[in-house]
Amino acid sequence: MHHHGYPWTGPKDRFDNEALRRSPHPEPPPAGSRPELIQRYREVAAEFSAVDLPPLTTAYWLVKPRALIRGTWDEAKEAAAWLGERLAEYAPRFADEHDRDTSRLSRRVDSAALRFATGTDVSYGFYLERPTYLSLAVVTCSPNRSMPALSCPLG
Questions:
Q1: Distances in Å between the alpha carbon of 103 and those of 79, 99, 120?
Q2: Is the pLDDT of residue 66 over 90?
Q3: CB neighbour list of residue 76: distance below 8 Å, 6 or more residues apart
Q4: Whole-angstrom distance between the N-terminal and C-terminal Cα of the chain?
Q5: What is the dihedral sign for C-alpha 83, 88, 90, 91?
Q6: Which of 137, 142, 141 is nearest to 5 (CA)?
Q7: Which of 9, 18, 118, 123 is deepest in the core (most CB within 10 A)?
Q8: Which pLDDT value is given to residue 129?
Q9: How far is CA 31 from the centre of its chain?
C-alpha cells in the first residue's frame, strides 16, 4: 500500500462544475434518448478522467492523469507530513480565520496520519482569497480501500 498526494487550486466557480467532477454513469443513456443527453454523457465520459478538477469521490483521483500526482509515499506518516506542509503553506491565505488555527491544522494532520495507516483516503477543502478554492487529497493506492478495482496511475 502507498499514498498519492493531489493538490488543486482554482476558481470556485470552476470547482462548482460538478458535472466534470462526477464520474460518468457506467451505462450510456439508452438508445432513443434526447440528443443533448447523449452528447452531455459523451462529454463527461471523455473529460472526467482528463480534467484536473477534484473528483467528488476522492478515490477517483486514481483515474486522473499521473502528472497531477504531487507526491507518492509508502509510509502514512510521510503522506501526513506532505499534507501538513501544504496546510502550512496555504493557511495564511485561508478565507476563514478559524481554519488558520495551527492547533486545529495539527489535529487534522494527526487524524489524517491515523486514517492513512488504515488505508483510508483524506480530502480537505478550503476557501482562499475569494473566489479561489483549495482542494488537498491523499489517496491510498494498491489497493484503494473504497474502490479496490481502481489501478495505480503509476502502473
A1: 19, 10, 23
A2: yes
A3: 3, 113, 114, 116, 117
A4: 13
A5: positive
A6: 137
A7: 123
A8: 86
A9: 33
Instruction: Give the C-alpha distances (Å, rounded to integers) separating 101 from 1, 79, 128, 152.
Output: 32, 21, 14, 35
Residue pair 130/10 in contact (Cβ under 8 Å)? The answer is no
Do 72 and 4 meet the contact criterion of CB atoms below 8 Å apart? yes
Q: Which amino acid is at 53?
A: L
Place of cell 488504515: 118
Q: What percent of the chain has pLDDT over 90?
A: 87
Sheet holding 122-127, edge to edge: 71-73, 2-11, 132-141, 122-127
Q: Which helix (H) or strand (E) holds 46?
A: helix 35-47
Identify the helix (H) or strand (E) that includes residue 14.
helix 12-15
Q: In the 8-state DSSP scheme, what is residue 60? A: G
In the block, residue with C-alpha cell 479561489: 132
pLDDT digits (tens, 9 = 90+) for 125-153: 999 988 899 999 999 999 999 999 999 99
Q: Three cell numbers at 38?
A: 447523449
